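Hypothesis: this fold can be encoded by more than one sequence.
Test: take the structure tokens below, design a sequence, compare later.
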């Protein structure tokens, strides 16, 4: 989910994700490149209404609600701030 939070939320192309999988860490790369694993992950996210998969003969995309994206981006920023503060405290 964190990975998807910074992509175009209305149109996350699955073809784009698979094509760019070489540039990401191995665990996430495995999920994206293994079709069965990817379908399971997307299905789980759909069960919680975090993303929606739209299939048509012209495109296969994921759609994320704006509020879900905003929440994830805020959580990531808070995590970065906490980690920075911990590092600062230990550096003293």
């Amino acid at each position: 989910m964190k990975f998807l939070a910074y992509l175009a939320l209305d149109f996350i192309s699955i073809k784009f994700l698979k094509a760019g999988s070489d540039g990401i860490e191995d665990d996430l790369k495995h999920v994206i490149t293994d079709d069965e694993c990817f379908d399971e992950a997307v299905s789980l996210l759909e069960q919680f209404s975090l993303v929606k998969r739209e299939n048509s003969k012209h495109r296969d995309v994921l759609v994320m609600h704006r509020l879900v994206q905003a929440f994830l981006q805020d959580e990531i920023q808070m995590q970065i701030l906490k980690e920075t503060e911990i590092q600062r405290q230990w550096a003293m």
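The chain has one domain: 4-91. Residues 4-91 form a domain with the Arc Repressor Mutant, subunit A fold (CATH 1.10.10).
Hypothesis status: open.
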